[in-house]
Amino acid sequence: MLIKRKSIEQEESSRPARKPKYAPVTLSEQDGVRYLHFGTEWVQGAMRIRKPNWPELEYAQQMMTWMLWRQKPAHIAQLGLGTATLTKYCYVTFPEAAVTAVELNPSVIAICESMFKLPPNDARLRVVEMDALDFVNDEANAGTLDVLQVDLYDATARGPVLDSAEFYQSCNACLTDHGIMTVNLFGDHPSYARNIKAIKFAFEQVICLPQVHDGNVVAIAFRRKRAIDLEALAGRAAQIVAETKLPAKSWVKGITAGITSL
């Protein structure tokens, strides 16, 4: 995530400087919203304390754009846990779906359990401590995901930490034949063009939504090219709004803009 907020936790230490394996996990709160940081002012995720399962940030809502095409996914996965926003929302919204989240930093998993209302693993929910690259390259995951949501930022939050064509090809391989991937990108950074080029190399069809926040751009990638029926999408968007209150009508407007800009 790319919104700036100063952490309420001190970053000073009396110990000698030593390079940590992972960036420190820190928190801040304002106006009833709790934010996750990796030791900087960059926000890695947010949760409204009174609505812990709601995707508070607009880019996180846009990461659910795949709902316009997939109404009953069997398996949804997230690469990068953040504040577990997407994981929790998918878990409660799709009670028949398996939900998998992949996170490399064990401290992020622990803070999500203690401060961001992440439920424990069960028959449907699996949060695994693992490198996202290893996950998508695992042959056991090939062809198993209806939806893949990719949000992989480090402490500097200047671009995804995995962005090669080979990585996105592996993401593609994890999807079922009509699977969809959404990716959080940083539109105001050189990494954006590199990622878009790599995603378009790996996927048959890619649409980008308009930029939100301080630069977030959500890309929608389809494993198989499909006709974009805007009238049908508008009808589905109205259904999503009625059932979930997610701003799905704005997604269709963004998709329309994305198509016309191609």
Task: Write a concise keyword list for the protein shown above.
262 residues; alpha/beta; seven-stranded mixed β-sheet; three-stranded antiparallel β-sheet; 8 helices; 10 strands
Task: Report what the structure shows.
The chain has helices spanning 58-62, 85-93, 106-115, 132-137, 165-174, 191-202, 230-244, 248-260, and strands at residues 26-30, 33-37, 43-48, 75-79, 98-103, 125-129, 145-150, 175-186, 205-208, 216-222. The protein has 262 residues and is α/β, with parallel strands linked by helices. The longest helix is centred in the C-terminal third of the chain and has 15 residues, at 230-244. It is 31% helix and 23% strand. Helix 5 (165-174) crosses helix 6 and helix 7 runs antiparallel to helix 8 (248-260). It is globular, with a radius of gyration of 18 Å. Helix 2 (85-93) links the parallel strand 4 (75-79) and strand 5 (98-103). The chain contains eight helices and ten strands. The strands form two sheets. A seven-stranded mixed sheet has the order 6-5-4-7-8-10-9, with helices on both faces. The model is unreliable at 5-20 (pLDDT under 50). The chain starts with 25 loop residues before the first strand and ends with a helix.
